[in-house]
Amino acid sequence: MNKKIKQKEFIIEKTLLLFAGITIITTIAIILTLFGESFLFFREIPIWDFLTGTTWAPTLKPRSFGVLPLLVGTLMVALFSSIISLPLGLGSAIYLSEYSNKKARKVIKPILELLAGIPSIVYGFFALTFITPIIKQILPQTEIFNVASASIAIGIMTLPMVASLCEDAMMAIPDSVRNGAYALGSTKMEVALKIILPSTATSIASAFVLAISRAIGETMIVAIAAGQSPMLNFNPLASIQTMTGFMVNLSLGDIQQGTIEYKTLFAVGAMLFMITLIMNLIAKGILHRNKVRY
Amino acid sequence: MIEQEENKQQKNDRIKSRLILNKPKNNEESINTSKENIKIECKDIDFHYGTNHALKNVNLQIMENRITALIGPSGCGKSTFIRTINRMYEHVVDTKIEGTIHLDKENVLAPDYDVTELRKKVGMVFQKPNPFPKSIYENVIYGPRKHGLKNKGQLDLIVERSLKKAALWDEVKDRLHTSALGLSGGQQQRLCIARCLAVDPEVLLMDEPTSALDPIATLKIEDLFQALREEYTIVIVTHSMQQAARISDNTAFFLNGEIIESGLTDDLFTKPKDSRTEDYITGRFS
Amino acid sequence: METFQQKNIRKRKLKNSILHIVLASIIVFSIIMLLLLLYQVFSEGLSRLSWSFITSMPSRFPDRAGIASALAGSIWTIGLTIIFSVPLGVGTALYLEEYANQKSWWTKLLQLNIANLAGVPSIVYGMLGLAVFVKFLHFNRSILAGALTLTLLILPVIIVASQEAIKSVPSPLKEGSYALGVSKWQTIVGVIVPYAAPGILTGSILAVSRAMGEAAPLIMIGAAGYISFLPKSPLDSFTVLPIQIFNWTSRPQAEFAEIAAAGIIVLLVLLLSMNAIAIVLRNKYQNRMD
To answer: Residue B58's domain is classified under what CATH number?
Structure first.
């Protein structure tokens, strides 16, 4: 009887260990598949041409594999979306943790959660059918597919994430710290800007990096609203293509394993993976480097 | 019933007499250790928790059907010690134990001694009542059911018997299927005792069982101990010397992981052999 | 005459009020955006929403197009994803919290790895699914390949949420069970999981609703856009609601934008009802415990 229980316990522990191991296998599999196919890609296309070329035409002859247009498109989307998500997210966090009362929080937090829970395909639809027409009305030279519209939608989508991460950090500061300042006659603004902000600076920075990383990896919004023209330009009102946008566009067609298209897909995917991984590690590094303890 | 009353009366007198420390000892009442059975014998216990040497060469005999109290200042190792008897330390990482603990002549620290069997024989009640967030009934049958008992009639019987032994039956018999968390603190602790009794233990380990309770609930549980003493061997950790003096037969005094002195409660409180024991029981100890 | 101090205090109070207004308008901005988004979707799509829209197959003609195959595909995929991801995620969390030695390098590696996986863009999981499930394991562009891809995608979310829930189980409860001679797994089943269930449930449902809204990874594994039959087995090819919506949104005609919006309404209703179920179940569990 007891031997049976012990055996059962042993089997269960090993099974759970196996489950946990799946997460490690996932990472290894991601690295192997992305870099395996990329390796084949770079045997045909010199890595230098890939990284510095300014023309992206992997499917049209004459083929050209300069990834800069995709990279610039991606970074533009990341930049413009952060103009919305970072300040507004931070502002929401300050309001929630320093200004609002319990009742207001109870209403606002679910709204932000709802905003964060809406699928990106819905934001894509919103960008194309609502934001773009408004921009076009104000600036008629705007193209139907453009960076600005997609960026605004991504900004709204990532705003709740910034708000929630920053707010968690601010709420972790004990009230005794605030009360000390209030007792000296400080206003809420002075407490928020001179005490709360500096002591949560690392968490805020980390949240910002994560939000930018999310924007870089965001796919459906840019696939719908930002366009499919990999041109190297810096005009937010023009159509571009991002790395993720390219990947979706290519996948909509039928691509066979072993073709240059298939390998290109993985090369771009590997680059996307590397960029987001490095940013996530940076975010984590910032957080650990300088933790203020109370 | 009448007999019990008499016992109680006797006990109360004894308690009263004990608290008058200078009163000479009544010979008839003194218990001769050599005639009793040793239930648990701990030899040369050394216990390490990380780099902390928590128990140093602890030797103690625990007598069958007696209440043994472990006293000493907080952090002295008394709680650590009772956790070695049912091997609860195994759930904490980075612990190391040396020595032997014989329960009925078998070394429970031996690797092949089954910990399930051990804990069925040696029950434990904790400092704060910790009933499961289930009904009263479910709490009591938790142990037996997990040990494989499925018969509803038998389970019902166990519930009634255990709750009666824990002096809780009359208070809860009409609401066995309501949540245990609705009980008062003292009732919860008696439920935890009933939960222990349901797996039919021989030894009960109590880790400051009344420290979270009010005086009236404490009194009820102390009365309960006197009844349980007939059937079980009880080891109780307490921070209250009065409690140790009131309820226990034997006492061991712990200090910095060592047993300074152990013996009959009456002797230890009236004529301590070690000056440190005396300092502690007279309150000169910080 | 106002003194210097009084002037200073007035200035500080004014600044404070300005910041208060600015911050409050940021919150109002978020709320307005949510309302605008919902208004846009409903004003476009509500007129197209009908029973035949839900029961019809997709079509080249917007008036006849429906979401039957996409809805069935979504239900199949999400059903399988739940079956795969919840046991795996909760099991991993149990391993990390109850079995693993918290100080060992292996546990630390697992934790770091899970945190990093949570930040990997969903489209990368799509590539993994394409290479491993579709090509290497030859599941082709099937529901099974899609569900496995989504499982890996939401696994980190379920693990982290379950870990939090398991951590919240008071250790006296676990000790109470162990002290009765009850084994570890029995304690997990008898005390730990019931106590942690509301948290596990909430986290899992949030993760599954994320999977339900995902289009990118499934497009990567080649979930086709035009499916005019209802899938009958996990090895059938499929499409899901978000992909169907994507296809319609990409069409230039206004009619297709309207049926895309109608599809979004269905998707949002599904997501909201899942969250409502989560809240109901959570309350039920919590009541039982108090």
So the answer is: 3.40.50.300
Q: Would you call A159 an interface residue with chain C, using a CB distance cutoff of 8 Å?
A: yes
Cα–chain center distance at A74: 11
> Minimal Cα–Cα distance from A111 to chain C, Å?
7
What residues of chain C lie within 8 A of the CB of B235, using their CB?
A: none
Of A9, A33, A265, the CB nearest to C184: A9
* Inter-CA distances, B211 with B167, B243, B284, Å: 19, 11, 22
Question: Among A220, A244, A279, which would you mutate to test the C interface (most chain C Cβ atoms within 10 Å of its Cβ)?
Answer: A220
For residues C122 and C117, give the distance between their C-alpha atoms in angstroms, rounded to a whole number: 10
Chains that touch A (3 or more CB pairs under 8 A): B, C
Answer whether A2 sits within 8 Å of B148, measured CB to CB.
no
Range of the domain at B276: 37-281
Which H helix or E strand runs over A68? helix A68-94
Q: Which residues pair with B45 in a beta bridge?
A: B58
B148 and A1 in contact by Cβ < 8 A? yes
Structural domains counted in chain B: 1
CA distance C41 to B238: 67
Q: Which amino acid is at C106?
A: W
User: CA C135: distance to chain centroid?
Assistant: 26
* Ordered DSSP codes for C157-202: HHHHHHHHHHHTS-HHHHHHHHTTT--HHHHIIIIIHHHHHHHHHH
Taking each helix axis from N to C end, the angle separating A2-44 and C105-118, rounded to the nearest 10 degrees, works out to 50
Length in residues, chain B = 286
Report how far residue B189's alpha carbon sits from residue B186's, in angstroms, rounded to the nearest whole number: 5
Q: Which CATH class is domain C53-289?
A: mainly alpha
**For strand B250-255 and strand B258-264, is the pairing parallel, antiparallel, or unpaired?**
antiparallel
With respect to residue B22, please indicate whether it lies within any of the assigned structural domains: no
User: Residue B57: enclosing H or E segment and its boundaries?
Assistant: strand B52-63
B198 → chain C, closest CA residue: C180
B9, part of any domain: no
What spatial distance separates the first Cα and last Cα of chain C, rounded to whole Å?
63
Task: For residue B256, give how far its alpha carbon lies from the nearest alpha carbon of chain C (Å).
Answer: 25
Q: Quote the CA–CA distance of C255 and A174 in Å, as a whole number.
A: 55
Is A119 in Cβ contact with C212 (below 8 Å)?
yes
C213/A210 touch (CB, cutoff 8 Å), yes or no: no
Residue C215 CB neighbours (<10 A) = 29
Please report residues of B whose CB lies closer than 8 A to that of C176. Answer: 126, 130-132, 192, 195
Question: Are A156 and C33 inside 8 Å of each other by CB?
Answer: yes
Q: Is the dihedral of CA B196, B202, B206, B209 positive or negative?
A: positive
Q: Give the relative orientation of helices A2-44 and C143-167 as an angle to the nearest 10 degrees.
A: 120
Among candidates C176, C195, C289 on the partner chain, residue whose Cβ is nearest the Cβ of B126:
C176
Residue numbers of C between 135 and 154 with CB closer than 8 Å to A: 135, 152
Q: How far apart are the first and last CA of chain B?
A: 44
| Cβ partners under 8 Å of residue A275, min gap 6 | A213, A216
Chain B touched by C180 (CB under 8 Å): yes
pLDDT per residue as tens, chain C (290 positions) = 678 888 888 889 999 999 999 999 999 999 999 999 999 999 999 999 999 899 888 888 888 888 999 999 999 999 999 999 999 999 999 999 999 988 889 999 999 999 999 999 999 999 999 999 999 999 989 999 999 999 999 999 999 999 999 999 999 999 999 999 999 999 999 999 999 998 999 899 999 999 999 999 999 998 866 788 888 889 888 999 999 999 999 888 888 999 999 999 999 999 999 888 887 877 777 665 55
Q: Which two tokens stand for residue B211?
A: 């420290």
| CB-CB contact of A63 with A140 (8 Å) | no
